[in-house]
Amino acid sequence: MTCNVGWFERITRFIIGVIILGLYGALTPPWRYIALLGLIPLGSALTGFCPIYAQLGWNRCRPPAHRGES
Fold first, then answer.
1. Long-range contacts made by residues 21-28, C-beta under 8 angstroms, separation at least 24?
2. At how many degrees (to 10) do helices 39-47 and 7-22 cross?
3. CB-CB contact of 42 with 21 (8 Å)
4. How far apart are CA 36 and CA 43, in angstroms?
5. Could you say which of 37, 38, 45, 63 would form a disulfide bridge with 21 (CB–CB 3.0 to 4.6 Å)?
């Protein structure tokens, strides 16, 4: 898996994932398990890989800068 999610989007996905997972304790049992969908943006934020972006051929990650080149 290569990185296809940029740093700003990774931070945003992490925050959204944590907020959605935080709803787990506030919701009643039938709706509580929907809050586990927060694992999806959280996982893509931690790995830097989004399978939907890969299927669409999108890459939001900058190529690494080469040191020592002018």
1. none
2. 150
3. yes
4. 12
5. 38
Q: What are phi and psi of 57, to 5 degrees?
A: 80, 20
At which residue do the structure tokens 């939001």 appear? 60
Q: What is the mean pLDDT of the chain?
A: 91
Question: Are the CB atoms for 17 and 39 separated by under 8 Å?
Answer: yes
Which of 50, 45, 70 has the alpha carbon at shortest distance from 2?
A: 50
Q: Where do the DSSP E strands lie in 1-70?
A: none
What are the boundaries of each domain within the chain? Answer: 7-56
Q: Has this prediction a pTM greater than 0.70?
A: yes
Query: What's the mean pLDDT in 50-67?
Result: 87
Residue-wise pLDDT for 7-40, tens only, equals 999 999 999 999 999 999 999 998 999 999 999 9
Q: Is the pLDDT of residue 64 over 80?
A: no
